[in-house]
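Reading a protein record of the kind used here takes only a little practice. The record below shows the convention in full:
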Amino acid sequence: MRFLDEDEELNPIVSAVNLVDVFLVIIAALLIAIAQNPLSPFTAENVTVVKNAGEPNMEVIVKEGKEIKQYKSNGEIGSGEGMRAGVAYKMADGSFVYVPESDGSATGKQENTQ
């Protein structure tokens, strides 16, 4: 009859079961947090994230499908490699005229941006 009177507080397996329950709740919360992250590997969406917008240490993270690209700013405005391709003029009616420099002609392509 001693087994019927045994107190549950003295049984060490009860505390181990409680620890397992706590860890299961923590794991479930972490999985939910990972699933809601926009850069999660489980989503097939295209996502662009801008960190520290307008600051010298700005970062742009682009996720296209399963590929993630990260671009870091070097702090200089308008920096980069390339060459001048031409000149764009805004006309009085609001349209833009692009004049390329390579062929030297005065006629350009006209794009209406209204």
